[in-house]
Design a protein that fits this description.
With about 160 residues, this protein is mainly beta. The chain has a single domain, classed as BH3618-like (Roll), CATH 2.30.290. About 5% of the residues lie in helices and about 40% in strands. The chain contains 1 helix and 13 strands, in the order βββββββαββββββ. The strands form 3 sheets. It has a 7-stranded mixed barrel. Strands 1-2 form a two-stranded antiparallel sheet. Strands 7-13 form a two-stranded parallel sheet. The chain is globular and about 40 Å long.
Length: about 160
């Protein structure tokens, strides 16, 4: 399918890279159709591009690439809205903010985007955990990881 973007022009997007958000990202709740675009083949960065607003795209990354101890617990209500059957079905992304011409990058660890890889339903969830900030400094990739990102349902 074709997607019009202001950043990349017209793109042909595979159906498998589309995401239907249960509720759009914070501040953009009315926008619910997105697609994931790989930034470049040699980088972990992706774009979460709105399919409804050509000018809206968020830079996102899998937090396991940068944060070796990032663990979140999502509520049963979130898991139900995403129709998650198991933790393995969940993909996790965090929105990045890029400042100072790319020299300063922060990740929003307090509100990750969780995607169900089976049905491509996603949503930005609020994590109530004092360890995670909205603007957490991005670590340098390539450092040894002590554990993978874990998603668990609250009991």
């Amino acid at each position: 399918m074709k997607v019009q973007t202001t950043r990349f022009g017209a793109l042909e997007v595979d159906e498998g890279s589309t995401v239907n958000m249960a509720s759009g990202p914070l501040g953009f709740e009315q926008l619910t159709r997105f697609c994931l675009i790989q930034h470049r083949s040699d980088t972990s960065f992706r774009w979460l591009q709105s399919m409804e607003d050509p000018s809206l795209a968020f830079v996102v990354v899998d937090p396991t690439e940068f944060f070796d101890d990032y663990e979140i617990e999502i509520s049963d209500a979130y898991a139900e809205m995403l129709r998650l059957q198991s933790e393995e079905d969940a993909l996790l992304f965090v929105v990045l903010t890029v400042g100072d011409h790319g020299k300063h990058i922060t990740a929003n660890l307090a509100a990750p985007i969780v995607l169900n890889s089976k049905n491509r339903i996603g949503m930005q969830v609020i994590i109530e955990d004092d360890r995670y900030a909205v603007r957490h400094e991005l670590a340098t990739p390539g450092a040894k990881r002590s554990r993978a990102t874990t998603i668990t349902n609250a009991a």
